[in-house]
Amino acid sequence: MFQSLMDKMASAFQSFKNKGKLTPADVKVGMRQIKLALLEADVNFKVVKEFVNRVSERAVGQEVLESLLPHQHIVKIVREELIAIMGETNEKLAISSKPPTIVMMCGLQGSGKTTHSAKLARMMKKQGKRPLLVACDIYRPAAITQLKVVGEQVEVPVFAIEDCKDAVKIAREGVKHAENNAYDLVILDTAGRLHVDEELMEELRRIKETVSPTEILLVVDSMTGQDAVNVAESFNELLDITGVILTKLDGDTRGGAALSVRFVTGKPIKFIGVGEKLDQIEPFYPDRMASRIIGMGDVLTLIDKAEAAFDEKQAREMEQKLRHNAFTLEDYMEQFEQLKKMGSLDQLMGMIPGMKPGALQDAKIDEKQLDRTRAIIQSMTPRERQKPDIINFSRKKRIAAGCGQTVEEVNRLLRQFEAMNKMMKQLTGKKGKFGRMKFPFQGF
Fold it and tell me: CA 155, CA 152: separation in Å to the nearest integer?
């Protein structure tokens, strides 16, 4: 996410290092690099101009704090201004005081509305809501089928009227169905359309007038860059959208949309899609995103992911096992599974301060290692999983043959398990924060 922009920002900050104080000339040179970095990232020109002016004014006009070096002072200002541009705070989904809350999803064709309707439903269901997905896309072939498939995957019911060619009627009847069946959240999956298609845009306006949605969320493909801003402006002018979902932020996106949409439309980015899986949606936090862009990492999101993957009960049970030297290969396998839930290792590395996304690309970590490890452990007897010390050479040969791996692979797993066992004992033995850590760990 934003790798190119992050690299260029880091290069620009380097120009401020080894300066005793910041002069207007120093600031001008450094800000020119930042300006070019933002423009190359496809940030709206008006946004870039406003941003550069504000940072330059603050950098030259303020005294550098005694506790900060000049380049640190610039980093502080840039981060604060990035946060200001992206919206200051996380804005949650508005919930109607009178159920159901109605969320209308809109956007261009192929922006990811159907998938993100299911993602949003899954997220809100985990927060205690009873969501209902409503299939209002009457144009795209198999659109209703797709919504039913993703709805089944997230275990959320789908309301549809087969062969009906009136999207407004489907939306109205979907809301009635929700009211009659105690669903407190309705998500309308509308058809994708071009923002220049007046007839289809008029359909959205009529849906809005008919059901009075609590939220109108525009789903924007962040890969479209500058055009995403034009799309957001058009939809906002017609519908007065309440927020934006930015998709495909896990790809090779330049970041322009994330830095431009809020400034141009005045409407907040509420959620971001960070992968294809249905659990890969996150609330958008401007401060966290700003920290990632300038290379400060995103520890809070990393903690959120860890807490979502590893609950308190599991943490207490695991701590007790470690304290009593009862950590088994089955527990080790569980740690693999918990870490996998947190996302790809490359994404996690990008959240650690000082680490860049892609830092593991040369480490040649085998993504299929989890499957091989699971196969090896499942080839063991329950007693061998509980007491790996009893696994001698003949047992290793049997285990390897049973899972289609080599004895060397079995040996490697056992060495990793022993190394992780020692590390976990050390961590739980320490007092303070590290002694209370609830992160899933895994050895490589």
Answer: 5
pLDDT tens digits for range 131-159 = 999 999 988 888 899 999 999 999 999 99
Domains of the chain and any CATH numbers: 3-86 (1.20.120.140), 101-296 (3.40.50.300), 302-436 (1.10.260.30)
Asked whether the predicted pLDDT for residue 432 surpasses 50, the reply is no
Segment 118-130, tens digit of pLDDT: 999 999 999 999 9
Sheet-wide strand order for 158-159: 158-159, 131-136, 185-190, 101-107, 215-221, 243-247, 269-273, 281-283
CA atoms within 13 A on the CB side of 230: 9
Angle at 55 between CA 49 and CA 60, to 5 degrees: 125
Task: Report d(CA 364, CA 381) in Å as an integer.
Answer: 31
| Backbone angles phi and psi of 83, in degrees to 5 | -60, -45
> Which residues sit opposite 102 in a β-bridge?
186
pTM greater than 0.70: no
Angle at 361 between CA 358 and CA 363, to 5 degrees: 130
